What we know:
Blueprint: H1 8-11, H2 25-55, H3 83-111, H4 116-138, H5 143-168
Helix pairs in contact: 2-3, 2-4, 3-4, 3-5, 4-5
Amino acid sequence: MPWRNNSIQEDLMPIDTEILSLANPVFETFALAASIMLLKLMFQPWMTVVRMMSVRAGFRSPEDAKRSPLNPIPDPKQLEVNEYVDRSRRMNLNDLESIPGFLMAGMLFVLSEPPLLLAQILIWAYVVSRAAHFIAYTTAQLHDVRAFCWTWSSVSVITMIGYTLARVFGLL
């Protein structure tokens, strides 16, 4: 390739390893928030299982309504939609729609080296709004309330992406 240099060392740009280190307060903020959100993502299915087992309903697959050590008294009605269980499933799907985008946008945002205060505001706004969304969904609040909570998490992620793009294009 004519554009490539023969010297590998000349092709490499210096990498600031401090950016992705806990010594960087922006990365530390993101790492803590991302860990919390990943725990939320991993524990939500457990909430669904607990709900399923507590009401012995909301199973999804035909084989789930067969006799087993965990289901000693099967009933075909166990396969019917159960709102208590299904609410937890919908919360899990909502997390799967939101949290991966936050993780990717947040990492790119960290790499764009934003000011610490801006990073803290956007990252924690996302986490707090998702916690509020969880409470609103768990307590069956109106869509308007859930949408209000969701909106702040979405605006936070979009702002992180906008900031990152502005840095990429040299606008900041």
